[in-house]
Amino acid sequence: MFNGPWLRELARLPWGIVLVIVALGSFGIVILYSAAGGSLSPWALKQAVRFVILLIVMLMLAMVRPETWMRLAWPIYGVVLLGLIGVELLGQVGGGSQRWLDIGIIRLQPSEFMKLAIVLVLARYYQSLPRGFETQLNALLPALALIAFPAALVMLQPDLGTALSITFGGVVVMFLAGVRLWLFIGAGVATAAAMPLVWTMMHEYQRKRVLIFLDPSTDPRGAGYHITQSKIAIGSGGINGKGFLNGTQSHLDYLPELHTDFIFATMAEEWGLIGGLFIILGFAIILAWGIRVALNGKNQFERLLAFGLTATLFFYLAINMMMVMGLAPVVGIPLPLISYGGSAMMTVLILLGIIMGIDRQNTRPPA
User: Fold this and answer.
1) Sheet holding 92-94, edge to edge
2) Which residues pair with 98 in a beta bridge?
3) pLDDT tens readout for residues 3-22
4) Which of 18, 168, 283, 331 could pair with 161 in a Cys bridge, judged by C-beta atoms 3.0 to 4.6 Å apart?
C-alpha cells in the first residue's frame, strides 16, 4: 500500500503535463486506428498497450532523484555505446539499415537510447569541469569525442536522422555549458567546407533524398513521391479536415509510411489545421515546461540535463514536421507520441520521466 511520503512524492509530479502527454498519445492511437481503415490492428491496439506500459515506466522514472542519474551517467553511456558496437557486429537489418539488436524477448535500437545518453553524459562531464575551462582544448576534445564516436557508429548503420539528433543534443549541452559561440561558427564553416567529402561518403539513397528535397518534381513517381503525396494530404485537409476515417490519400495507399514518418500528414488530411494546432500546442506546453524546469535547476547538471533533453524533443518535432511539409529532407525521424513504434516512444517517455524527476525534486519544500 502507498504510505504518506510516497503519496506526497506523487503529488509533486506535474500532473497537468502528464494529462497533456496522455492527450497526445491517445490522439496518436486514434490516428493509427483511422490509418488502418477503422481497425485496431495492426497498429492502434499494439500502440495503446505500449503507451500504457511506458506511461507507467515514465511515472516510475519520475520518482528517481537527479543525483542518481548523475551517478549513472557514465555507465549508461558505456552500455549504450557497447550496444551500438554490437549492432555493427550482430545487428539485424530492417528497411535497408542495420539498427536493431535482437535479445530474444525484445528488439532494441541502441541508437534511440544514445539520444538520451549523450545528453546525460555531457551534463555529467560539465558538472565536474571547473568553471572557465569549457573552451580550453583539453576540455573540448573529450566532449567532441563523446559526441563523434556514437554519431559515427550510427552513420554506419546508416541512420542520418538519428546521428543528427545525437549531435544536436550534444552540441546544445556544450553551448549551454559555456563553450564560446565563435567555436560553433568555426565548426559550421569547417563543416560546410567538408560537405564535398561528406557527399562522397553518403549512400546513394541519402544523396537522392537531398536532391529530391531541393526539387521533388524531378522524380514525382520515384524518390519525390513521398514528399509530393504528403503535401497533397496536408493541403487537402484544409482547416477542418475531411473528417475521421474519411482520408483518401491514406486509405487509398497514396501516402507512404502513413503510420510512422508521415503520420502528421495522415492526421492533417482528416483533422486539418485544427488537428495540427492541437499537436503543436500540446508539445509547445511540454517544451515550455521543460525549459522552466531547466531554468529552476539547482545545479549545472540538472540545468544542462533538462535543457538538453528538451532540445532533443524539439529536434524530433521540428525535423518530422518540416520533413512531411517538404521543408527538410526525409531522414526517418518519427513524430513523438504519435508515430507507431516502440523504441521512439520509449525514448521520449523516458526523456519526459527524467525531466519530471528534476521537476519533482525542485518542488520539494525546504527542510
Assistant:
1) 92-94, 97-102, 107-108
2) 93
3) 567 677 788 899 999 999 99
4) 331
Q: Of 27, 99, 38, 12, nearest to 267 (Cα)?
A: 27
Percent of the chain surpassing pLDDT 70: 83
Q: Return the SS3 of 123.
A: helix
Question: pLDDT digit string (tens) for 186-208?
Answer: 767 777 776 676 667 666 666 76
Q: How far is CA 356 from CA 4, 105, 169, 350, in A?
A: 20, 29, 19, 10
Please state the separation of Cα 218 from the chain's center in Å.
30
Query: Could you tell me the CA-to-CA distances from 26 to 21, 36, 44, 129 in Å, in that order?
Result: 8, 16, 10, 42
- CA–CA separation, 350 and 339 (whole Å): 16
Nearest CA to 43 out of 51, 321, 336, 332 is that of: 51
Full-model pTM: 0.89
Distance CA 267, CA 353 (A): 27
β-bridge pairing 92-94 and 97-102: antiparallel
